[in-house]
Design goal:
Elements: H1 7-11, H2 23-32, H3 37-42, H4 49-74, H5 78-87, H6 91-100, H7 108-120, H8 127-140, H9 148-161, H10 164-179, H11 184-198
Helix pairs in contact: 2-4, 4-6, 6-8, 7-8, 8-10, 9-10
């Protein structure tokens, strides 16, 4: 069994800045010990790009596999994560944040703030970042249905003019969204219902 160290020391291990290293072990460790979340979160702002990228990888796994447990704890980090979106320089961190942030409980204005950052990433040089930004925008529509018309229009454009990965993802996302495409009245109703639940 691999020796356990601090969260930071475990994330420091890896061959290159984008290698996974022990990020999956860190995710499992944090899921088993939620009180260690803050140590993982602090690594998102580390000076070492490898640590930053692996911290993003680990946090994406935590939010994917145990969001029901971590939602209350991540609420304290929501403002920081929203602030990190436009500041994130590492491609791997960007594509993980594109999946992580829409999983947080966001207000209408916070959804709009996140959507603005993700839309800017559609001009990123990395195809993976752009593809994950598309996914993130679709995920945001679950909390802010008023984003749907704009997101659908973007997907229609990108499914024709984007990279092969973007076109493939765009077509899949469009099929999912347009299969349940709602009328404007229904979009307004869903938005009102979302606001009521947050009160």
């Amino acid at each position: 069994m691999a020796k356990m160290g601090t969260i930071h020391s475990m994330l420091s291990e890896g061959k290159g800045r984008i290698s996974v290293g022990r990020a999956d072990e860190v995710a499992a460790l944090v899921i088993a010990n939620p009180e260690k979340l803050s140590r993982l979160m602090e690594c998102l702002w580390d000076k070492d790009p490898g640590v930053v990228n692996r911290a993003g990888h680990a946090l994406e796994r935590v939010t994917r596999d145990a969001m029901d447990v971590f939602a209350p704890l991540l609420a304290d980090w929501k403002t920081s994560l929203l602030g990190l979106l436009p500041e994130a320089a590492e491609n791997k961190l960007r594509w993980h944040l594109a999946l992580i942030v829409p999983r947080l409980t966001l207000s209408h204005s916070e959804c709009r703030r996140a959507a603005t950052a993700l839309q800017s990433w559609l001009e990123d040089g990395s195809s993976i970042v752009k593809t994950m930004a598309m996914q993130g925008l679709v995920d945001l529509t679950r909390q802010d249905p008023s984003l749907l018309p704009e997101v659908v229009d973007l997907l229609r454009i990108l499914s024709r003019s984007g990279t092969p990965a973007m076109r493939a993802r765009g077509r899949r996302l469009l099929m999912k969204l347009e299969g349940t495409r709602e009328t404007p009245n229904r979009v307004r109703t869903r938005f009102a219902e979302t606001l009521a639940r947050r009160r």
